[in-house]
Write a structure and sequence with these properties.
The complex is a heterodimer of chains A (418) and B (303). With 418 residues, chain A is of the alpha/beta class. Chain A has 8 helices and 20 strands. With 303 residues, chain B is mainly α. Helices cover 67% and strands 1% of the residues of chain B. In chain B, helix 1 crosses helix 6 (138-165) and helix 6 packs antiparallel against helix 7 (176-200). Chain B is elongated and about 85 Å long. Chain B starts with 23 loop residues before the first strand and ends with a helix. In chain B, 40% of the residues are buried. Classes of the chains: A alpha/beta (418), B mainly alpha (303). The interface between A and B is large, with 59 and 49 residues.
Chain lengths: 418, 303
């Protein structure tokens, strides 16, 4: 049954927005060159930066625009802000818009804080009176009252950032467009930014936030949009977007078989010729979701006869820490006898408890014994990605059972705490 | 295991909105904006803060601003009255030669400041252009306005100088706003044109520096128009007076300093001919605005 819902009109609507950049192949930017070569046609390369983007942002929504460098996310923000014009498509905004692409835009180092704050307010669209009225709130938030008459060039970089950030957030706008670069600086400052973002979200402000940091996106955003080379890949819940982002970012690397045989070490009695990851259904996959069963396989070609070789697996994370180590010896020291020319498949399966991120598997083959007498060591060039919504910070994400219960009655306390 | 709750609005089915309920359309950047108050506030405050910087930025402040035209005046005055004797005792039109010269230099200084300052203005304010949405025309206009502030102060100096030299107040002083207005339109038209062209042709600056020098000698700053008439004839004088700066300076000399020098209209061969420089100024202004307006939406991308 169709449900009749009276929708409040959204605050931002983008309808089939497209944009291209024209970049001249050979830039002639002097009149002299034009005069000397009047007939030379400058050829242009056209880049499709945004391709048919449609979305809406509702009142009170914290909306993320995600994508890697060059995906067009900042261009989209600039189009929303009216800094770039679009080639086709339409956009509407309902309410006062404020854009923060960079901190302290237009600050003049030779002017005092007061003049800068007022001038910046006027640039942001306030009237001079409003800008002056806002000044006190800005300077107090920045905790720079005693330095208000100091020229900006005499400010420390920390004071500069504080003032700029204060200017940015003390605006009376319904809709804020925020670029992630706003949250640069040291960890404490980034934390302060994020605190403010949280406050804004709780205060019901409508925010469009551009980022490539999936953690931040999942923490703040209600909904997000994923861009890749100007195309809208996905729009929806942040964790879905994060999964797609990790997939397209780390999954498509075509650099398989990165190592040449010379670098591989071992005596070469056997060689790993292929290695891959399979999901539950036996398909080769570039990425796997947390919680699923995952299988890593290596195909080994024996060049000589080998008795009871030992195969090992190391799963290394981004910091080259072996998060998982496994070996066939666990199963049995007697793996069998393999003849020269034979191809053998070794597989390692486990429930994927790895934290979301990128991993590279490494396989080792050793003669029977200590496991140090290597035949081959193979670092698969093709990394794989674990996707998941929650990154709590641990190396692995075990299914921990959490219990909370109130302590009542006469449970004995340790002496030290009494 | 996550302890943080993220409230997610339910995924909505495709919704069709009436465009009338959607607020205002987002337009790309342009030369102008619908909000004229904001346009003016921006222009004025940018010019004012620049002016404050120059005024209070150094110990001598405004004196430095005045120093350049004054030094130029000093050199030219000494040379032409004491050495080459252009400006002394050659008839009543040479009376108050000092005030004529100083005023012309001050008018020229405004023209040079406004136009050469505008050439790089948009490109130099790249961070603003690329990161804030505001009407782009504000940038060159604030440069012209800044030069205007200086012109206002300098004209006071000229008037004081004139009174000391012996010029008496005249009713024709009321023409000053018209003279300045024509000059302002001329400079603004060029400022818009140059600022837009510089984005595409980065050699506009040296080119314009040379042009400014040529204009200086092609205007009645040092050489009175009577000399042009005497040496080159009436046709040449007419062509000479098609330069709007020449009209501005000559009319200043006539109306503000000395009625014995011919008025701009007289040099052109009649009041009706005044329309010619006015049309030139109007056409330049229109061209400048047209070019700037055309390039404004793409400036942020082409910097």
């Amino acid at each position: 049954m169709a449900e009749l819902v009276r929708h409040e009109p959204p605050l931002i609507v983008a309808d089939a927005v497209s944009k291209t950049f024209r970049v001249p192949e050979e830039r002639t930017d002097t009149l002299k060159e034009r005069a000397l070569h009047p007939r030379r046609r400058t050829t242009h390369k056209t880049f499709q930066v945004l391709n048919d983007i449609s979305f809406d942002v509702k009142r009170g929504e914290f909306f993320g625009i995600a994508g890697r460098n060059g995906s067009g996310k900042s261009t989209l923000l600039k189009c929303l802000a009216g800094i770039y014009g679009v080639d086709s498509g339409r956009m509407w905004v309902n309410g006062r818009l404020s854009t923060f692409i960079e901190l302290g835009v237009g600050f003049n180092a030779d002017l005092a804080a007061r003049d800068n704050v007022v001038l910046n307010g006027i640039m942001m669209g306030l009237s001079p009176r409003e800008a002056r009225a806002r000044y006190d709130a800005v300077i107090d938030f920045a905790e720079l009252r005693e330095f208000e008459d100091l020229k900006l060039k005499n400010y420390s970089s920390g004071m500069h950032v504080r003032l700029a950030f204060s200017v940015a957030i003390q605006v009376d706008a319904d809709i804020l467009l925020i670029d992630e670069v706003l949250a640069v600086g040291d960890a404490a400052f980034a934390q302060k930014c994020f605190d403010v973002f949280n406050e804004m979200r709780d205060a019901g402000k409508t925010i469009v936030f551009v980022t490539h940091d999936m953690g931040a996106m999942m923490r703040f955003c209600h909904r997000a949009l994923l861009l890749e080379r100007g195309d809208m890949i996905h729009i929806g819940e942040p964790h879905e977007v994060a999964e797609r982002y990790l997939e397209i970012n780390f999954g498509r690397d075509p650099e398989a078989m990165a190592q040449s045989t010379d670098e591989r070490g071992g005596d070469g009695d056997a060689r790993v010729v292929d290695a891959w990851i399979e999901d539950e259904s036996g398909e080769r996959v570039p990425a796997t979701q947390q919680g699923r069963r995952v299988t890593l396989k290596a195909r080994v070609h024996f060049l000589v006869d080998v008795q009871d070789p030992e195969a090992g697996l190391y799963v290394l994370n981004d910091e080259h820490v072996a998060v998982v180590v496994a070996t066939t010896v666990r199963e049995s020291e007697r793996s069998g006898h393999f003849r020269a020319g034979e191809d053998v498949l070794f597989s390692f399966s486990f429930d994927n408890v790895l934290a979301p991120g990128r991993y590279s598997p490494m396989f080792t083959l050793a003669h029977r014994g200590s496991g140090l007498d290597l035949m081959d060591r193979f670092e698969a060039g093709n990394t794989f990605v674990v996707t998941g919504a929650e990154a709590l910070g641990g190396l692995v994400d075990l299914p921990v059972q959490v219990g909370v219960s109130r302590v009542t009655g006469d449970v004995a306390r340790p002496e030290a705490l009494a | 295991m996550s302890l943080e709750l993220v409230q997610v609005p339910p995924a909505s089915p495709p919704v069709v909105y009436s465009t009338e309920t959607l607020g205002r359309p987002i337009q790309g950047p342009g030369a102008l904006s619908n909000d004229w108050r904001r346009f003016w506030h921006l222009t004025y405050n940018i010019a004012r803060s620049e002016w404050k910087l120059r005024f209070f930025g150094s110990a001598l402040g405004y004196l430095w601003q005045l120093m350049r035209p004054l030094l130029l005046f000093g050199v030219l005055y000494v040379f032409f009255t004491k050495i080459s004797h252009v400006g002394a005792g050659q008839g009543p039109s040479y009376d108050f030669y000092g005030t004529q010269l100083l005023g012309s230099i001050v008018l020229f200084t405004f023209f040079a400041e406004a136009t050469t300052g505008a050439v790089r203005s948009v490109v130099d304010r790249e961070p603003l252009v690329r990161k804030i949405q505001f009407p782009r025309l504000v940038i060159p206009l604030s440069v012209v306005l800044l030069a205007g502030f200086n012109l206002g102060l300098n004209l006071i100096v000229v008037i004081v100088f004139g009174l000391i030299e012996g010029v008496r107040p005249m009713l024709s002083w009321l023409e000053l706003p018209l003279i300045v207005a024509l000059l302002a339109f001329f400079a603004t038209g060029l400022a818009m044109l140059l600022a837009a062209l510089f984005v595409y042709f980065r050699d506009m600056q040296p080119i314009w520096d040379v042009v400014t020098q040529v204009v200086f000698y092609a205007s009645p700053v040092i050489i009175p128009v009577t000399e042009v008439l005497k040496q080159l004839g009436p046709t040449a004088l007419h062509l000479y007076m098609l330069n709007p700066l020449a009209v501005v300076m000559q009319q200043y000399r006539h109306a503000m300093v000395n009625h014995a020098t011919p008025s701009a209209a007289a040099c052109l061969g009649g009041t009706a001919h005044l329309i010619e420089p006015v049309v030139i100024v109007g056409a330049l202004f229109a061209l400048g605005f047209y070019v700037f307006n055309r390039t404004a939406p793409y400036v942020a991308e082409n910097l």
